[in-house]
Amino acid sequence: MPTSIKTQYKMLADFNQWANIHIYDSSEMLSSDDYFMDRGAFFGSVHNTLNHLLLIDRLWGARIAGEAPPTITGLDDVLYDAFDELRTARIAEDEKLIKLVDDLSEDDLTETVSYKMSNGTAMQTERWLMLSTLFNHHTHHRGQVHCLLTQSDISIPALDIIYYAKEAGLT
After folding, report:
1. Is the dihedral of CA 136, 141, 144, 146 positive or negative?
2. CA proximity to 133, closest of 117, 121, 154, 146
3. Which pTM value belongs to this model?
4. Residue 82 and residue 36: Cα distance in Å, rounded?
5. Which domains are assigned to the chain?
6. How far is CA 162 from CA 11, 12, 62, 159, 165, in A?
7. How does pLDDT run across 69-84, given as a tens digit for each residue?
8. d(CA 78, CA 17)
9. Burial of residue 32, with CB atoms counted within 10 A of its CB: 0-12 exposed, 13-18 middle, 19 or more buried
10. Which residues lie across from 125 on neighbouring strands?
């Protein structure tokens, strides 16, 4: 059982990375046509949904770190056109998120952060809630990708956090 709020968020950052590795490994097994096919998900294809997750991670990561967020034109911006480039960026972003969480203190987690939403609305939110939003957003859209992958003939691993915990030796 986590002994602190920081320990909980450290576990979530590590789980996020683990789940992303599995979702990218599965996505890589798709043909290019299947990977880029609009399957009717909110962002259409597996590729566009994975791009959305990276975009939002960069936005929330910057806000959580107190940095200027990247400039975007919309939440459906495609940052990378090729799978390999997107995967490389995903790996780097997961490492950055893990480091961000590692560097936060318990006090940092309860600190209120001022930032602007993409539409310019000024917001103030405690950092722990911002992290919760980021991780919940990931679970939501990664679940969509998981569903899209199940429409193909490839094998998809279970991504429940309990499987990560067992594999990581947390239980």
Report:
1. negative
2. 117
3. 0.94
4. 10
5. 5-167 (1.20.120.450)
6. 11, 12, 29, 8, 5
7. 888 889 999 999 999 9
8. 21
9. exposed
10. 113
Of 34, 72, 37, 25, give the one whose Cα is nearest residue 52. Answer: 72
Q: How far apart are the C-alpha atoms of 86 and 78, rounded to whole Å?
A: 10
Q: What per-residue confidence (pLDDT) applies to 165?
A: 94
| Alpha-helical runs (H) found in the chain | 5-28, 32-36, 46-65, 83-103, 106-110, 127-150, 161-167
| Tokens, residue 143 | 């679940």
Tokens matching residue 96: 């950055």
- Reported as a pLDDT band with limits 50, 70 and 90, residue 3 is confident
- In the structure encoding, which two tokens stand for residue 86, read together? 């997107």
CA 7 to chain centre: 18
Reading the block at residue 109, the tokens are 């987690």
